[in-house]
Amino acid sequence: MTEQFDAVDVIRAKRDGLALSGPQIDWVIDAYTRGLVTDYQMSALAMAIFLNGMSRVEVAHWTGAMIASGERLDFSGLSRPTADKHSTGGVGDKITLPLAPLVASFGVAVPQLSGRGLGHTGGTLDKLESIPGWRAALSNDETLAQLEDVGAVICAAGSGLAPADRKLYALRDVTATVESIPLIASSIMSKKIAEGTGALVLDVKVGSGAFMKSLPQARELARTMVDLGSDAGVHTVALLTDMSVPLGLTAGNALEVAESVEVLAGGGPADVVELTVALAVEMLAGAGRPVGEDEVRAALADGRAMDVWRRMIAAQDGDPDAKLAVAKETETVVAGADGVLTRLDAYGVGIAAWRLGAGRARKEDPVQAAAGVQLHAKPGDRVTAGQPLMTLHTDTPERFARARQALEGAWEVLPGGAAGAGDATPGKLILDRIA
Ligand code: URA
């Protein structure tokens, strides 16, 4: 069969700063999925896109071509409207765990097709797999049945959704082309649009622990994704939220499940609750079931969200009452002097949790359920000399030294620091909203 285009011409056009045509984009994505365009050619094209960008029309076309590379789910037969959330990834970001059952408790179905962690940010499936018996792999029929019955599903995204993205993302990971706004936006949105949700709320993280280190970059990513979603008929809103400090007091799989259960029991750290409630309000409004913040908070306090959590875990063979794994070894990091904790860097804590065994370096590596970092203070807190600032958890104590190295320079206690003025000050978590 003669091919419509030549990969070299497509690469050259983007290298020279030209816009790719719709047919060129359709062809290159399809030919890459078929294995006709090689990894080295796609690497060159990804780098040309990284350097020269893509117009709004090109990004929309690129996203459409990735959606067309696989199947689309159809939730139109459900009796409830659907709403989903996507976070661009951060340290201690366990929000999906309390959020999915919370939103479902108001009659909106939450299909949360998730991934595993790579690098310093944790993966939702890794967290839930620390619950004994819990199963991530569901068939499409099981997903639909659970959405109708329980209202919330957190499961592995099947390989049928946007297979071109799966291949391209793995390539970008090893060719220094991940941090490109058009490539990130089309990667995330192709999966979300193919998934078939009616409403989508994006949590775009900003700061040291996130892909986007600055607010203008994060705004541009959010704008691109919101436009892609809206153009595809998905009601899409983005919140820009701080990721310079870890979310909550835990980073690590079982540690984060335990903290999420505290939130579902009406407690938990204020920042985790604030973000969970804000995202739930947006998801419910997007699904056409607007609910006020007080009513959403009430569903955490009175056990409605917890009831859905328990049913959601049990439906996937998990035991919501099982004891979570506890690390074999712990060490503490203590404050050297009296003062105020003025800085606690999300990236450093994320790397430490990863090195303790909470994350993986290669896709096939196992993770330790109990490994991670537990925080005892957040920026703005007054501390005294010798007071534990963090507890490091692992089953393999030879990992402590490398984890401590990651934390060097990641936190600071200043004698004259202002208490309560740190990064965790309430109100500084949600930085902007883009609709
Ligand atoms: N997550 C994705 O799914 N794709 C990206 O490109 C970045 C983060």
Automatic annotation (TrEMBL):
Q: What is its EC number?
A: 2.4.2.4
Per the similarity annotation, which family is this?
A: Belongs to the thymidine/pyrimidine-nucleoside phosphorylase family.
Q: What is this protein called?
A: Thymidine phosphorylase
PROSITE patterns documented for this protein: THYMID_PHOSPHORYLASE
GO MF term list: thymidine phosphorylase activity
InterPro entries reported in the protein's UniProt record? Glycosyl_Trfase_fam3, Glycosyl_Trfase_fam3_N_dom, Glycosyl_Trfase_fam3_N_dom_sf, Nuc_phospho_transferase, PYNP-like_C_sf, PYNP_C, Pyrmidine_PPas_bac/euk, Pyrmidine_PPase_CS
Subunit and partners: Homodimer.
What domain of life does the UniProt record list for this protein's source? Bacteria
